[in-house]
Amino acid sequence: MGWLVEALVALILLSLCLAITESAPESALVTNLPGFNGSFPSKHYAGYVAIDKERNKNLWYYFVESERNASTDPVVLWLNGGPGCSSMDGFVYEHGPFNFELTKTKAPRLHLNRHSWSKVSNIIYLDSPVGVGNSYSKDKSYYITNDTQTASDSYAFLIEWFKMFPEFQSNPFMRISKRKSNKDVTKPVINFKGYLVGNGVTDPVFDGNALVPFAHGIGLISSELFEETKAACKEQYYKSENTTNECSDLIQKVYDDVRLLNLYDILEPCYHDTSITTFDIGSLPPSFFMLGKTERPLPVRKRIFGRAWPLGAIVRPGFLPSWPQLLAGSSVSCIDDRVATAWLNDPAVRKEIHAKEKSEIGRWDLCTNQIHYTQIAGSMIEYHRNLTLSGYRALIFSGDHDMCVPFTGSEAWTKAMGYKVVDEWRPWMSNGQVAGFTQGYANNLTFLTIKGAGHTVPEYKPREALDFYSRFLAGEKM
Ligand SMILES: *[C@@H]1O[C@H](CO)[C@@H](O)[C@H](O)[C@H]1NC(C)=O
Ligand SMILES: *[C@@H]1O[C@H](CO)[C@@H](O)[C@H](O)[C@H]1NC(C)=O
Ligand SMILES: *[C@@H]1O[C@H](CO)[C@@H](O)[C@H](O)[C@H]1NC(C)=O
Ligand SMILES: *[C@@H]1O[C@H](CO)[C@@H](O)[C@H](O)[C@H]1NC(C)=O
Ligand SMILES: *[C@@H]1O[C@H](CO)[C@@H](O)[C@H](O)[C@H]1NC(C)=O
Ligand SMILES: *[C@@H]1O[C@H](CO)[C@@H](O)[C@H](O)[C@H]1NC(C)=O
């Protein structure tokens, strides 16, 4: 289940439901949010779920009921991954019910988001594992964690969550799995239907080989450098014991050409934040010290504070440091997560969303440095194979201007699964325009690009994102 913890991953859990949330815990209801003075389009809940008997592991969630039909729309679990990043990234910056506006007073103003994924689904934003976002443990030894632990904790959370919100598991579509539940009526049946992964790190070789062809195809390096690199590396750009010095030197040249770009969306501009003088600039790629400008009224971020994924992100086993860990305690003032950080650390907000006080569990960080994370799951490809062969629907989507996890890698590994092509590469449309390209495979595996989008697709292309999301949930053709 390592796919739960890829870099910026969306996992989807579809549970077709009936009956409104009458038995949902009243105490978890969110009725008011600082910065927003309208009425909520649907019910919101937030709070903690203790997943162990000792109540040592407390996972925090924010649940948004569907604005369409909560009783029939699917339930989706959203995980931002990282590892170590709060799923409130998705809530604040990507597809939550509000658009957050940064104001001069620093208290963000919230506007309803026309393209919220709660338009068509019930959605749980989960901070996982403990130590991330608002999730916590009194016992800090739980902050030493890994893929399997995180996955089993998230699963334990779901079981408990469905007990708290039983109306989301009692429905006619669940009858298929009723047989299981007859044995133990208190154990909820999770009617798992499928999942989506967006620009997810998947496999060391495929992702490791992705950058060079991406940089060439999209016009960032010369054809001469591309041909030279291709020949010297024998098309194997992933660093291995067979990598020659000539190949490494040429790959370095490719890196040098692209390093000033905004890694998460090569179309977005960058500027140098002059306040960054507190640590050694030479130790990190220059682009990490830059914030972008934008002409959009509610700006998208120009930096994402994540784990230390290098260019050509890898999923090698082992300890995965976060940027703050790399920087050994220096403040990272270049990161533009101001709106989320201001809002989620506001005591008035924390009270409304039922998060423990900062004095008790520490401040909210988009990506925490307090967990010590070991990657053990390796390549995700076999997980995808098992899941798709078990009948779960999968949508592998990719913002085609993300250089962190370039689409070339995702395109290659989905193809390498060897499934029959059932819907040959073609444009897909949104709002009467080409929104990207898609290729459909047997076993309900779909690969989809989003034209002009960066790493966090719904942040850059909210309308198109809601379109493909709705179609996927409804089982429609892209
Ligand atoms: C509250 O809503 C009113 C209109 O209903 C609007 O004029 C006002 O600016 C809003 N205030 C804030 C702080 O959003
Ligand atoms: C939601 O769907 C159920 C089942 O189809 C239906 O009975 C109910 O009227 C719907 N509610 C709304 C508000 O459309
Ligand atoms: C994963 O983490 C858990 C909790 O710390 C630990 O018990 C387990 O041994 C770890 N697994 C591996 C393979 O390291
Ligand atoms: C390195 O080359 C040898 C011989 O061609 C091959 O057997 C081995 O799999 C290669 N290693 C990697 C990591 O590609
Ligand atoms: C895939 O399924 C097979 C057969 O059930 C199992 O042996 C294997 O461990 C699974 N692989 C993964 C990565 O889950
Ligand atoms: C694909 O998904 C559809 C809708 O969920 C389902 O009816 C169909 O059987 C699936 N096809 C395969 C090959 O799993």
UniProtKB/TrEMBL annotation:
User: InterPro entries, alphabetically?
Assistant: AB_hydrolase_fold, Peptidase_S10, Ser_caboxypep_his_AS
EC no.?
3.4.16.5
Biological role stated in the UniProt entry: Probable carboxypeptidase.
Signal peptide stretch: 1-19
Q: Where is the protein found, in the record's own terms? A: Secreted
> What are the alphabetically sorted keywords of the record?
Carboxypeptidase, Disulfide bond, Glycoprotein, Hydrolase, Protease, Signal, Zymogen
Tell me the lineage of the source organism: Eukaryota, Viridiplantae, Streptophyta, Embryophyta, Tracheophyta
Q: Decide whether keyword Nucleus is in the record.
A: no
Origin: domain of life: Eukaryota
Q: Which organism is it from?
A: Microthlaspi erraticum
Q: Which GO terms describe its biological process?
A: proteolysis; secondary metabolic process
Q: Name one GO cellular component term.
A: extracellular region
- In Gene Ontology terms, what is one molecular function of this protein? acyltransferase activity, transferring groups other than amino-acyl groups
Assigned protein family: Belongs to the peptidase S10 family.
For this entry, the protein name equals: Serine carboxypeptidase 1
Q: Which Pfam families match?
A: Peptidase_S10
